[in-house]
Amino acid sequence: MSNQDIKAKETTKDSKYIQQHLANERTFLAWLRTAISIIGVGFLVTNLHFTMRATLSPLGDQLATIIGILSVGVGIVTIIVSAVAYVRKIEAINSQTFRPAVISMVLLGVFVIIISLIFGTYFFII
């Protein structure tokens, strides 16, 4: 056996928990898709609002702008939080000291609820 064959067969720390690492990657990608969706909804509402602008009120203008800004902000925060959680989970998986990220998930949930309430207010007003 050559030296290269021996190196190829060595088990790394990450390869011991390969299923957990792959699940961590899938979760990270799911959070990225969620962030893109949140941002997309903000753009959609804002674009639709300003397309129909002639029939809407100034308060509707302000709410549409707030929805757009909050959606982009929450999307960016979601990407940052998910990236940090992904990196932290890599080490937690390898050291078998995993702890769920309760605070970040609750905060993201609260942000989504706030945006949903603003959406509801927006659609009620227009």
Automatic annotation (TrEMBL):
Predominant place of localization: membrane
Species lineage: Bacteria, Bacillati, Bacillota, Bacilli, Bacillales
Domain DUF202 stretches: 20-90
Entry keyword annotation includes Membrane: yes
Transmembrane segments: 28-50, 62-86, 98-125
Record PANTHER family: DUF202 DOMAIN-CONTAINING PROTEIN, FGR18P
Localisation: Cell membrane
GO cellular component: plasma membrane
The keyword Flavoprotein is annotated on this UniProt entry: no
Protein name according to UniProt: DUF202 domain-containing protein
Membrane topology: Multi-pass membrane protein
Source species: Priestia veravalensis
Pfam families, sorted: DUF202
Keyword set, alphabetical order: Cell membrane, Membrane, Transmembrane, Transmembrane helix
